[in-house]
């Protein structure tokens, strides 16, 4: 099995929203903000080659909403997921599985696209793929609470149910050798973190975990650095604590969805708590 991170960012999000209760005087040293208080973030997806399966994890924002909507995020930036898949030597028809960690617009937007230049008909971006979500996350996205309503855009995922490509990881086995799934409920209900058993560069087994929005960047490794978007921030802190302890004990390599510089990092115990150890590209650290 091989994993290739694909960053189809940058896009911009409010620095205050990304760091929750952490003061700007502290976070701006790591993430400088522009005059609108926006910082640059990656839109990192994964391309996973596993036997005769080709899986994509998360799909970025896509391009279905209007210019005003994307203007808030400094999009479009000229990069697309389908362009990246083709650059990797595949066509959209080769993708067998799409795992959506959750259905927020910056993770699920690229799952569905307009089929026509007139932008009237929607279709799955990957016509032959099974699209995987958790039924608990799906229920939240399709009956959204007032706090998450603006990020669950029905056009991003409803066509997948209508055309029969939707599958639920809690009802059916993803059945990919060397891939396990972790579920977290602090950021949103039943966010999925895929965990991969790979072989490291020196031949040793290595666990790689895609952190989704549990730990979106290197700057979010310290437990109190919880995004303002999270629906259950205290639960996120518990989940991060348990997750990071396992990451140290089992020498996990963590991959970040939104870090604008670093694809991946390892973590270590320090006097102040668990902190980043090595950081770099996935290939460098594997
Ligand atoms: Zn999210």
TrEMBL record:
Span of domain Metallo-beta-lactamase: 42-258
GO terms assigned for molecular function: hydrolase activity; metal ion binding
Q: Which SUPFAM superfamilies match?
A: Metallo-hydrolase/oxidoreductase
One Pfam family this chain carries? Lactamase_B
Keywords from the UniProt entry: Hydrolase, Metal-binding, Zinc
Q: Which domain of life is it from?
A: Bacteria
Classification via InterPro entries: MBL_superfamily_lactonases, Metallo-B-lactamas, RibonucZ/Hydroxyglut_hydro
Return the PANTHER family for the record. Answer: QUORUM-QUENCHING LACTONASE YTNP-RELATED, QUORUM-QUENCHING LACTONASE YTNP-RELATED-RELATED
Of which family is this protein a member?
Belongs to the metallo-beta-lactamase superfamily.
- Record protein name field: Beta-lactamase domain protein
